[in-house]
Amino acid sequence: WRNILRSGLVVAALAALPAHAAEPISPRFSADPSAHVFDGRYYVYATDDASNSGTYWDSTTWRLYVSKDLKAWKDAGAFMAVTAFKWARPDAKAWAPEAAHRNGRYYFYAPVGGDKIGVAVASRPEGPFVDAIGAPLVDKARDANAGAEPIDPQVLVDDDGQAYLVFGTRVPKIVKLGADMISLAGPIQDLTITGFPADDPKKKYGEAPFLHKRNGLYYFSFSTGWPGQIVYAVAKSPMGPYAYKGVILDYLKISTNHQAILEAEGRSWLFYHDTLLPGGGDHRRSITVAPLTYAPDGAINEVKP
Ligand code: FUB
């Protein structure tokens, strides 16, 4: 041992180990976390990779995980299916969902088939959710400027009560929601991001838009593409324009990257998906969580998984 230690091999090997390897919180394949605290419990709504073909993101259900402490997670199952929306094809793809709580009710925003976003409502966070309006909330075929792929919805309810819905691939979209949370209250607009580094053409908007607010500043995070980094930009107004700031999470060995940021009990958390479960891959993703911290000037420190 003394000789081995002297050679420095053990020290070098230990130094190469991560202090804490990422572990999945989802015991089944799941992706695209939408993380919330409702009534003192943590909820993660997710794309249900456990029921897809394994070769594409073709699941038609969404999955839910619940925790009291962010450590032990209960699989609450495939709690919602595209068939809850009568206007949807029963085989339509169920992708990255979002949930929100307001007016004593829970709202579930569901990208369906890659071209529509539905909204469902429930009296409890785990559902049952029912279609709130009997038609898509956003529809590529109906709505001007919905973009090529209205997917990945995410909602911020601002301090003044105004709610914003962001969504979309390649061009980020933003629209005000009505106070009822189930109607659009203005035109769908392109969200502008300025200041991408000129020396990195890969730094551009891809998908997974996420809007949060901290100390009066609006943070817009997103994936840069396929594969993508999670990066962010900031603005003084929710509608932007947003100024590029930096990387939150570097490329992972996976074709998609998708994050959610949650503030809870004075701490911030980054939820994202990776290939952590045995048999994992591009279409068999699993969700994990890491602490997210800020520099004194409000910049987000890069998360090292
Ligand atoms: O889960 C299907 C798609 O993969 C999501 O809509 C994207 O954000 C990417 O994670």
Automatic annotation (TrEMBL):
Endpoints of the signal sequence: 1-21
This protein's record includes keyword Signal: yes
Keyword Glycoprotein tagged: no
InterPro entries cross-referenced by the UniProt entry: Glyco_hydro_43 (IPR006710), Glyco_hydro_beta-prop_sf (IPR023296), Glycosyl_Hydrlase_43_Enz (IPR052176)
Keywords: Carbohydrate metabolism, Glycosidase, Hydrolase, Polysaccharide degradation, Signal, Xylan degradation
Domain of life: Bacteria
Pfam families: Glyco_hydro_43
Family membership: Belongs to the glycosyl hydrolase 43 family.
Name of this chain's protein: Alpha-N-arabinofuranosidase
Gene source species: Caulobacter segnis
Taxonomic lineage of the native organism: Bacteria, Pseudomonadati, Pseudomonadota, Alphaproteobacteria, Caulobacterales
